[in-house]
Amino acid sequence: QVQLVESGGELVQPGASLRLSCATSGFTEGDYAIGWFRQAQGKKREGIGCISSADDSTRYKQSVKDRFSLSRDKARNTVFLQMNSLRPGDTAVYYCAATETLIECESLSSDDFDYWGQGTQVTVSS
Predict the structure, then answer these.
(1) Spatial separation of the C-alpha atoms in residues 15 and 43, rounded to whole Å
(2) With the CA atoms of 65, 98, 72 and 95 taken in that order, what torsion angle do they form, in degrees rounded to the nearest 10?
(3) Which of 47, 54, 53 is CA-nearest to residue 68?
(4) pLDDT tens digit sequence for 37-81
């Protein structure tokens, strides 16, 4: 009964910063990884980052590594995606997802994540 709930998506201007949250529940046994994905209209879903519960290690899609960062609040079971210097090209629905097998973020493919949140809309426009 793993559940993920994203929040924090807004309409912002180019250059703004935004922090998305992924509230998690139902991880009662071992470690897991939380991935962040986004899907713009008319485009495929792409993985942008991942953080492991085992050691808080992270990995990122190369194109966003200098602007986006992941962190985790263990006590509150929440993962954050900090996005800086936002561009119109960042406009998309952002999803968090979980895997209990690839706990070291070996993959950023959506096919390797088993649990998904509902998504939150991020729009970057002037």
Answers:
(1) 23
(2) 60
(3) 47
(4) 999 999 999 999 999 999 999 999 998 999 999 999 999 999 999
